[in-house]
Hints:
The structure holds 3 protein chains of 3 kinds. In chain A, 32% of the residues are buried. In chain A, strands 12-13-16-17-18-19 form a 6-stranded antiparallel β-sheet, with no helix packed on it. The longest helix of chain A has 25 residues, at 180-204. Chain A contains 10 helices and 22 strands. Chain A is 31% helix and 35% strand. By secondary structure, chain B is mostly helical. In chain B, helix 3 (72-94) packs antiparallel against helix 4 (100-121) and helix 7 (184-217) packs antiparallel against helix 8 (225-245). The radius of gyration of chain B is 19 Å and the shape is globular. The mean pLDDT of chain B is 87. Chain C is built from 12 helices and 10 strands. By secondary structure, chain C is an alpha/beta fold. The interface between B and C is medium-sized, with 29 and 28 residues.
Amino acid sequence: MRLLVSTRFNVGLFLFFSAVCALGSVVPQEPDSAQAAARFLEAWPRLGGLLSASGCFDLYHSWWFAALLGLLALDVALCKLRRPPPGSDPWEGLLGGPRAGGDAAALDLARPELRKKSLYAVCDRAGGGEGIGRLLEGFAAEGWRLSPVAEAPGAVEAGGRASEAPSGALAWVADRGSAQRWGSLVSHAAIVVVFAAGLAGRLLGFSEMIEVSEGRTAPMRHRPWTIALDRFTVEHYEKDGRPKLFASELRIMDGPLEVGRKRVVVNDPLDVGGVRFYQSSWGVAEDFAAVKISAAGEERVLRPGVEARLPGTRASVTAERFMPDFDVVDGRPANKSSEAIHPALRVRLKRPGKPAETLWVLNDMPDAALAEGPDGSVEAAPPPPFRVLGVQPRLFSGIEVGYDPGYRFMLAGFGAWVAGLVLLFGVHRRRVWVVCSESDGALRCELAGWSLRGDHAFHAEFDRLAGRARSALASAGAAVEGGGRGGA
Amino acid sequence: MELTLFAPAAVLYGVAAALAFVYLFSRDERWSLWALRLLAAGVAFHLASFGLRMADFWAIPENRWFLPVNSFYGALSFLALSVAAVALAVERGHRLGILGAFVLPWAALAAGGALWRAASLGSTEVAGLVPALRSYWMNIHPAVLMVAYAAFSNAAGVGVALLIQDGQIKSRRPTGLCYRLPAIAVLDDLCHRINAAGFLLLTVGIIMGGIWAYGAWGRFWGWDPKETWSLITAVVYAAYLHLRYVKGWRGRRAVYMSLAGFACVCFTFIGVNFLSGLHGYLSGR
Amino acid sequence: MSASSGLELLGVSHHAAPVEVRERLAALGPELVLESLAAAGWREAVVLSTCNRFEAYGVKPSPPGARALAQVLDDLAGAPLAAHGYGRLGAEAARHLFEVAAGLDSLVVGEAEILGQVRDCYHRAARTGRTGKVLNVLFQRAMFVGKKVRSETGLGTGRLSVASVAVELAERVFGSLAESQVLVLGAGEMAELTATHLTSARIARLWVANRTYERGLALARRFCGMAVRWEEFPGLLGSVDVVIASTGSDRAVVTRDMVADAAGRRNGRPLFLIDIAMPRDISDEVNELEQVYLYALDDLKAIVAENVARRQGEIARARAIVDGKADEFGRWLESLAAGREIGLKHAPGQGGGRAGRKA
C-alpha cells in the first residue's frame, strides 16, 4: 500500500504507461489496419508471434492494458485519499511532517522555527496586549482568513535570543489563497471521475456501425429502431478532388413512429434520447438504382430485378446485382471494397430456346463476360448481346450509432480537471503566522511568512504587512522599538 | 504571395537567433537589442503573411472562418509564430534577452521547416477543409496545443541555459558566460513556471480534442498515434511536475525530465505525421 | 593643440599628493572654489572633488583675462600645489577626464563609483550656471566614455577579493540574495570580512555559529544577526542558503552526510557553501551532491587571479577607447575655435544632443 502511493512508484508507473502507449503507436494495430498487422507478422514471424500472443496487435483493447489503466486510476485515488484534508494543519510550512502532542506542544516546537524563516519580522511594544486586536484586524481587513491556533501557558519569557525557553504565547495563522489546496484534490479526483465515466460508457453504452443505402432502411441492433436514409449527398472540391461534404438525411423510426429526423453531417450528429447518429463513412453499395444498356441501336433503362426485353432480339435480361470493386477470389466473384474501382454487373439473360444464363459484365472487359455457374464459380464466356452504357450506383452511408451514458459525467470530469489545475497553478497560496508573547509588561509579536511560490514571490507583500502590523501595534501605545528583520 | 512575406519572416527569425547567439559571448547590448527588434519584425511579417494565407484560405467558401492549419506547412508556420510570440512575451517581460540564444532557434527551425515544406511541394498547401475538420473546434483545439508546444520549447531553451549555468558554477572555474546568464534559481523558476503553463494548455487541448472527437465520431479517445503521443507528452510532464513538487527535484535532474518531455513534444508534432492515418499530414492516408 | 581653446585642468590626486593637501582642498567645498574661479574671470568651471582627488576644470574667456588656475587654487589652498599637482590643456585635459571617468585613474581600476561622482559634480556646477558649451560637452562626453568603457570592456567586471568573488557567485546561484539566509561558521577576521560583504549586498538574515558562543554572539550583534550554539548549526543547514566556513579547526566540521541530510529537508533548494578556512572546514565530497555548490579558498583565489589578469588586458582596450574619444574631442575643440563646429557622434540609445542633456 505504501509502495503504491510513493512518488517513485507513481512516476515509474507513468513512465511505464508512456512506454506501453508508445509501443502501441509503432506496432501496427489491427483495428486501424489489419493488413499492416498481417504484413508485420509475415515480415517478422518470431517477434510478430510474440507480439500477437501478448495482444500487442490490439494493445489498447487488451485486458492487461485495461488493468494498467485501472491501476493508474486506483493509484491516483489512493494518493489523494491518504493525504489529510486541505487546510487542516496550521503549521504547514513551518513544521514538517506529522507530530504528536496537542496544539500547545506544536506551538512550543514552532516558536524557535519562526526565526528561521527568511520572511520574518518582530514588533515590540511597551504596555499590554491591546494592539494585538488591531494588528489582527489589519489582516482581516485585507481579506486574510485568520484562525487562532494555540495558546501555550508558561513562565514569563526573558530576552530575545535565538535559543531560549518557550513561554506563554498566543498564536494565529493568517491564510490567503487557500483555495489552491483544493486544486490538487479536485484535479486528481476529476481524473478518477473521467476514468470511471469512460468505463461506465464502455460497459453501459454501445456503439454500432450501420451501412444504409440511399433510399433504403436498415435496422439497429441495440434498439428496436430502423434507420432510413432518404438522401445522401457527397461533394468534392474541384481543385484536388478531396472530399468537401457528406450529408445524410436520416429518419429514425420506432415502428411506425418517427423518433428523429435530421440532415446529419460530420461534426453534427443526430441525438435521439442520448443515442447519437454520426456521419462516419460512405461508399458505393452492392446495389444500384438503374442500368442503362444499349442493344441494336436502342437504349433501355433497367431497374433492379425487373425483367425487360432486349430490343432487336427475343431475349430478355434482368439486371440483378452490382459490385463496385469486382474480383475473383477462389474462383468466385467477390466485392473487394466500396469504391467504384472495378465495376461489374450481374445479369440474368434468357434467350429463347436456351436455359437462363447468369453473366457478369465487367467494366474493364467490354468484349468478354464471365458466366456464373450454379455453384457460384465463374468461367469465361462470350459477351452478351447488349452493351452496358452506365450504372447509376446506389450510395450507402456509414452511420456510427453510439450511446454513452457516461458522457455528462465525462464532461463534468473534464471541467473539474481544468478547474482543479487552474486552482493548483494559478492561485497564490501564502500564510503568515502571528505569535505574540509578553514579558516584563512588554509585548512582542513575531510574524513569519510562507509562500507556495517561494519567498521572492511574497517578499514585498510581507514587508508591507509587517509594516502595517508595526504601525497597528504602535498606534495602540508607545512602541519600544520599530522592530527589525535580522540581517542588513 | 504569402511566401513573399513568410520567407523574410523565417529569415528574420534565423538572423535574430544568430544575433542572440553572438550576444551570448559579446558584451555589447546592441546585439540583444537588434535580436529582439528583428524578432519583432519577423513576427510582424509573419502575421502579415498569415493574414494573406487566411484570405486565400477563406476564398474557398467552405473554409470560412477557420484557421488554416490543416496542412503540415500551415501547422509548422503557425507553430513558428507561436514560438516567436511566446519568446517575445517571456523574454521581454522578464528582461532576460540573453535567453534569446536558447529559445529563438526553435522558432527559426519551425519556420525553416515550413519553408522547406513549401519549397518541396511547390505550394503553400491551401486546400479545402475535409468534412471532419469543419467545426468550430478547428479554431481552438490546434491553436491551444500549438501554444502549449511553444511554451514547452521555450522552457526547453531555458532548461538548456540552466544546464550550462549549473555546469559553470559546479565546475568551480566559471567563465565570463556565468556572469551573463541569469542566476540558477531564476532559470529554474522560469523553466518550471513555463512548463506548468504549458502543461495546463496541453491538458486543455487534449480534452478539447476528446470532446471534438465525441462530436464527430462518437468516441472520446481512439488511441490514434497523435492522441496517444500527446497523452504520453502530458504524462511525462505530469511526472516532471510530481517530481518537482513532491520530491523536490530541481536543477539538472528537473531539466532532464523537461527535455524528455520536449522530445515527446517534437515526436508528437513531427514523428506522428508519418504514423497516423487520422492526424498524419505526411502518412499519405 | 592650441591653447586658444581655453580649456584647462589643474588637480591633485592620490597618486602624488599627500592626504593633507587633498583634505585641505576638499574642506574648501566646491561652491567656494567655483565662486572663486568665476570671480577670477573664468567663463566656465567645474570642480571634481572626491576622497581621492580634487580637480578643477575651467574654460578661459577669449580674449584671455583670467588669473591662472594655479594661482586661484594656490590662494585658496594657502599653499603652492605645483609640486603635488598636475595640469593639462585642451584635448589633454579631456583625455585625463575621460581616463578618470573610465576608472583608469582610480585606486581600484575600473571602479564604478567614480562615474556617479563625476556626474554629481558636473550637475552641481551646471545647476548654478557655472558651465557653458565647452564644459557641458566635455562632461557629457566624459560620462558617455565612462559608460562605453564599462559596457564594451571587462574593465569594471570581475571582483578582486575573495569575499566579493564569493558573494558574486552566490548571486549567480540565487539571483538576489534579499531572501537568502547566511550561516557563518567561526567568528574570526575572515568571517567578519565576508559577512561585511554579504550584508552590504542585503540578505534576509545572518546566523553565526562559533565554538565559543559569546564571540559568535558579538559578531552577530555587529551585523544585526542571530547567534546559535555550535551544536545547533547542523539543524540550520536545512533553512539557510549560504554557508561561510572559516573556523580554525584542523578537521572538516561540515561533512558530506551532514549536508546530504540537510538537502533532504531543503526540498530541492540550492545550497551554496564557501570554505575560506585553511585547512578546509568542509569536506570536498560535498560538491558531488545535487543542488549543492562548494567553493574552497583555492577556487576563489584562482578566480581572483583570473580577474586581475583579465583586468590588465582590459586596461589596454579601455585606454584605446579613451584615446580615440579624446582625439575626437580635440578636433571638435579646434573646429569650435575655427568657427566651423563639427558634429560629435553618439552611439544609439545614449541620448543625442550635446549641451544641457542629462547622461
